[in-house]
Design brief:
Protein name: Polyphosphate:AMP phosphotransferase
Distance between the termini: 60 Å
Oligomer: single chain
Number of helices: 20
Shape: elongated
Number of domains: 2
InterPro entries: P-loop_NTPase, PolyP_AMP_Tfrase, PPK2-related
Largest sheet: 5 strands, parallel
GO molecular function: polyphosphate:AMP phosphotransferase activity
Order of helices and strands: HEHEHHEHHEHHHEHHEHEHHEHHEHHHEH
Organism: Litoribrevibacter albus
Number of strands: 10
GO biological process, one term: polyphosphate metabolic process
CATH architecture of the largest domain: 3-Layer(aba) Sandwich
Helix content: 40-55%
C-alpha cells in the first residue's frame, strides 16, 4: 500500500475511533482490547499506535511483565481483575492471561496440568465479564516463521534500537514448531462467540495498523448499536418473577437445630480455650505466610458482629482486616460485581473477614430485583469459580451462615430500639426485610445448594443462642486452619 493511501485511510479511521470513544463514555459497558501474538515488537507498536490515534484520556493501558511479589501471593487472575476498566472506558492489555500462560508453559515454568487449569481460569474470566456486558476484543498479531526469524536476526544486531528481547521469548522462538502447535491449540481452546480471537497478519506495517483499527471500530460500533436497541426494547428477562421461585431440592435451613445453646459458665470456659487456640493457629498461619478469607452471612441481627469480635479479639490487629460490605459505590457499580472483592483478597500472612460479601448478588439483589434473572442465576458459577481460584492458591475460604428464627429476630430488633448504644443497628429497612422472610428463605436455600462446594463449604450455625454461635464459629475456624496447616506440612 502506498503511503499516501495509507495516510488517507488513517485520517478517516482516527476520526471514527474518536467519535466512538465519545459515544462510549456514556455507555453501560467497558471495552477490553487484548494485544497479543508472536510479533513482540508489533504488540508494543500497536499499543503506542492506539494511544496516538485515540483520546488517551479514556484509555487505560496495562502491560504485564513478571509478577511482582504481591502478585505472586495472589491467585493468577488477580492482577487482571484489579485492573479492569469501568463502564465507558477502553482498557488495553499487553501480555494477557492467555499469552502469559503460553510462555510459562513453553519454558516449563508450569506443567500441563497447571496450564490446563490456566485455560479454565481464562475462559471463566472472559465468560464472566462478557456476561456482564463487557466487550472483549482479542487480537493475535502473527508473523510467518521466515519473517519472524528475519526480525529476530535484525533485533539481535540492533538491540539498542528496538524493544529489548526477553530471554523467555528467545526460548520460545528456538523451538518454533512446538510453540506453533501449543499456540494454535490454545487459541482454539480459548476462542468463544463472546470473546473470539482475531488473528492479524503482522508482516506489513500499514496493513496491520489498518486491520487493527478497523476491527476495533467495527466491534465497538456494533456493541453500541446493540446497546441502543436493548434500551428501546423492554427487558423481559429482569422482571419475570422467577427470583421468588426456588431451584433447590432441599430445605437446608430446616436442618438447623436452633435449640442448641450454652450456659454462661460453659461459654466463658469454652471462649477462653478456643480464642487461645485460634490465636496460636493464626500465628502459625502468619509465620508460614499463609492467608485466609472468612465470610459471614446471616439474617439481620443474627450476631455476625459479635462472632467477628470474639474471633478478632484473639488476633493481632495487624494480621486481619474486617471488611463491612454495603451497597456498591458508583465506581464499584461501574465494574463487574466481583471486582471490588477481588481487590480485597489478602496478601500472604493476612486474613480478610467479610461482614456480608459477594453473596449479596444471590440474596438481596435477587430478592429486591436489583439483579436480573440471568445475572443472579449465572452468579452461582461465577462465585464458585472465584472461590475455587482462592482455594487453588492455598487460601482457605471459610463461610458461615448464622441462622435465627423470625421470633428471635424480632426480640433482638426490639432490644436494639431500647438500648441507646444499639440504636444505630436498627433501621426501617430491617423491618421491611422481615416482610420478605419467605423470599429470603428461598434464596438462602438456593445459595447453600449451589455454592456449598468441597473447596468452600457452607457452615450453618444455629444462632438463637449467641453464646453457642460464637463458640461454633471459633471451633470451625480452628478446625479449618489446623487442617490447612497439616495439609501444607505434607505437601
Amino acid at each position: 500500500m502506498k503511503k499516501s493511501k495509507y495516510k488517507e485511510q488513517v485520517k478517516a479511521l482516527r476520526a471514527e475511533l474518536i467519535q466512538l470513544q465519545i459515544a462510549l463514555k456514556d455507555a453501560d459497558f467497558p471495552v477490553l482490547i487484548v494485544i497479543s501474538g508472536d510479533d513482540r515488537s508489533g504488540r508494543h507498536e500497536t499499543l503506542n499506535l492506539l494511544h496516538e490515534w485515540m483520546d488517551s484520556r479514556f484509555l487505560q493501558a496495562n502491560a504485564y511483565g513478571l509478577p511482582t511479589e504481591e502478585e505472586q501471593q495472589k491467585p493468577f487472575m488477580w492482577r487482571y481483575w484489579k485492573d479492569l476498566p469501568q463502564n465507558g472506558v477502553i482498557g488495553l492489555c499487553l501480555r494477557d492471561w492467555t499469552s502469559y500462560s503460553i510462555i510459562e508453559y513453553l519454558i516449563d515454568q508450569i506443567d500441563e496440568k497447571q496450564f490446563t487449569k490456566r485455560i479454565e481460569y481464562s475462559n471463566a474470566f472472559e465468560a464472566t465479564l462478557t456476561a456482564r456486558g463487557m466487550l472483549i476484543i482479542k487480537i493475535w498479531l502473527h508473523l510467518p516463521e521466515e519473517e519472524l526469524k528475519h526480525r529476530l536476526k535484525i533485533e539481535r544486531k540492533y538491540l539498542h534500537k528496538v524493544w529489548q528481547i526477553h530471554q523467555k521469548d528467545q526460548l520460545i522462538y528456538s523451538d518454533f514448531d512446538r510453540a506453533k502447535t501449543v499456540i494454535q491449540k490454545t487459541l482454539k481452546d480459548t476462542d468463544s462467540d463472546s470473546s473470539s480471537w482475531h488473528i492479524i497478519e503482522s508482516s506489513d506495517l500499514y496493513q496491520r495498523n489498518l486491520h487493527v483499527g478497523k476491527l476495533i471500530a467495527e466491534k465497538i460500533r456494533a456493541r453500541l448499536n446493540r446497546s441502543a436497541t436493548d434500551n428501546v426494547q423492554p427487558n423481559e428477562d429482569s422482571k419475570t418473577g422467577r427470583q421468588h421461585e426456588t431451584t433447590s431440592q432441599k430445605n437446608h435451613l430446616d436442618t438447623i437445630d436452633l435449640s442448641k445453646h450454652l450456659d454462661k459458665k460453659t461459654y466463658k470456659h469454652e471462649l477462653k480455650y478456643w480464642q487461645h487456640k485460634a490465636s496460636h493457629l493464626i500465628y502459625q498461619f502468619q509465620e508460614m505466610d499463609k492467608s485466609c478469607v472468612i465470610v459471614f452471612e446471616g439474617w439481620d441481627a443474627a450476631g455476625k458482629g459479635g462472632c467477628i469480635r470474639r474471633l478478632t479479639s484473639s488476633i493481632d490487629a495487624g494480621f486481619y482486616r474486617v471488611i463491612p460490605v454495603a451497597a456498591p459505590t458508583d465506581e464499584e457499580s461501574a465494574h463487574h460485581y466481583l471486582w471490588r472483592f477481588w481487590r480485597k483478597i489478602p496478601r500472604a500472612g493476612r486474613m480478610s473477614i467479610f461482614d456480608r460479601s459477594w453473596y449479596g448478588r444471590v440474596l438481596v439483589e435477587r430478592v429486591e430485583g436489583f439483579a436480573s434473572d440471568n445475572e443472579w442465576q449465572s452468579a452461582y458459577d461465577e462465585i464458585n469459580d472465584f472461590e475455587r481460584q482462592l482455594h487453588d492458591k492455598g487460601i482457605p475460604v471459610i463461610k458461615f451462615w448464622l441462622h435465627i428464627d423470625k421470633e428471635e429476630q424480632l426480640e433482638r430488633f426490639k432490644e436494639r430500639e431500647t438500648i441507646p448504644y444499639k440504636h444505630h443497628k436498627i433501621t426501617e429497612e430491617d423491618y421491611r426485610n422481615r416482610e420478605k422472610w419467605t423470599d429470603y428463605e428461598i434464596t438462602i436455600n438456593d445459595m447453600i445448594d449451589k455454592t456449598s462446594t468441597s473447596y468452600a463449604p457452607w457452615r450453618l450455625i444455629p444462632s438463637n443462642s449467641k453464646h453457642y454461635a460464637r463458640i461454633e464459629v471459633l471451633k470451625h475456624v480452628c478446625n479449618v486452619l489446623e487442617k490447612t496447616l497439616k495439609d501444607s506440612s505434607t505437601e
